Amino acid sequence: MLQIGTQETFVAFKRVAAVTEIPESRGLRVRVGELEIGLYRVGEGYCAMDNVCPHAGYPLCDGELEDSTIMCPGHGWVFDVQTGLAPGEVEETPLVRYPVRIEGDDLWIDVDEPLKP
Ligand code: FES
After folding, report:
1. Residue with CA closest to ligand 1 atom 3
2. Which domains does the chain have, with CATH numbers?
3. pTM score, two decimals?
4. Per-residue DSSP letters for 4-70?
5. 81 exposed, middle or buried (CB, 10 Å; 0-12, 13-18, 19+)?
6. What is the Å distance from ligand 1's center to 53 Cα?
7. Which of 13, 38, 97, 107 could potentially form a cystine with 27 if both were Cys, beta carbons 3.0 to 4.6 Å apart?
8. Is the CB of 31 under 6 A from ligand 1?
């Protein structure tokens, strides 16, 4: 466990992958406890988002990633991995996203503190 922050702002991250494991045009499926999460490279950064498509449960990270949007391999629904929303949607409930930290060659995420919509 990597410990970041002061005692007052203590945040716990878990190592989930090496940066070299993230494919160019897809995501990488990782598990943290019961959670299945997709990890994506977007530009020089990384995003982590729930991996189960809300339509019928296909693994989103197996779809095609273009810029920051992933197309579900099931039936083609599209989500922005930076927002958790379908492009153009603002009133839907987004997929849960998690903070990602890069430490050396490793990626760490904090599933206890999901990003705010
Ligand atoms: S399961 Fe993802 S679009 Fe149908």
Report:
1. 75
2. 2-109 (2.102.10.10)
3. 0.89
4. ES-STT-EEEEEEEEGGGS-SSS-EEEEETTEEEEEEEETTEEEEEE-B-TTT--BGGGSEEETTEE
5. buried
6. 6
7. 38
8. no
